[in-house]
Amino acid sequence: MYHSDLIINGIDADKQMALQLDKALSGVKDQALKQASKIGDGATRLLYYTSCFTDNYQDVCARLKEEDLRFLDGIAQLVTKRDIIYRMIHIYYEEIFRFKTRSQLEAIQSSLLKAGVVISASTLNNQAFVIGITTTVCLGISFNASIIKWTSKTSALAVAGLGLYGTVQHAAESAERLKLMAPMYYNALYLQKLEMMYFLVEPIFMKARAFESDVISTIIKMVK
């Protein structure tokens, strides 16, 4: 996974951080694309499609088709825009900080600094602060450990022959959990056709208790 142009444009004075982010996330894209090449595998999800032959379960069939298409939309963005993980983290914090005042941002920044979390922001406004937090999280030890764990797991699934279609099912279940826990964030991702890619970052969100804890605690847990 590569850094987004937003990082480069927003933090020109800190090119080294952008280069580190690029290096830290580069393997995620390659692993996801490798899984995508195995389309047609995944017996479990294919079994669900037997409902298409039963009139009473046409709603299930329609939902499966929509999930498949939206998963492919996510894969397409992965190929063309290359910044899915960064964008999902950015959208999450953008929702949280949308209406924060400058004094609130200063208080949060101070609390984070005391916890040893430094947020690099060109100016202390909502957008710059969100960019800084997103970059810091994506470079964090905890974040990268979760990504490595996910890629290891999906590699094992590929060897077992489950391949992409097993990943689609996993992605669908992950998106459904998000819809129940955080409908506003789910809707924000849905508008960007990214909700089926949430499974990529779900482990770090769960570890940080992102939908239960206060924002300061969540940021600290995502970084460390």
Report on the structure:
This protein has 224 residues and is an all-alpha fold. 72% of the residues lie in helices and 0% in strands. The protein has helices spanning 5-10, 15-36, 43-48, 58-80, 84-97, 102-114, 126-139, 141-160, 163-181, 183-191, 202-207, 215-223. α5 (84-97) crosses α10 (183-191), α8 packs across α9 (163-181) and α9 (163-181) crosses α10. The longest helix has 23 residues, at 58-80. Mean pLDDT is 76; it is low at 1-14, 36-41 and 157-162.
Brief synopsis:
With 224 residues, the protein is mainly α. It has 12 helices and no strands.
Largest sheet, strands/sense/barrel: none
- SSE-based structural type: mainly alpha
Radius of gyration: 18 Å
Q: State the end-to-end CA separation.
A: 20 Å
Q: How many domains, in number, for the residues?
A: 1
Q: Bin the helical content.
A: over 70%
Order of helices and strands: HHHHHHHHHHHH
Count of runs of 4 or more consecutive helical residues: 12
Features:
mainly alpha; 224 residues; 12 helices; disordered N terminus; single chain
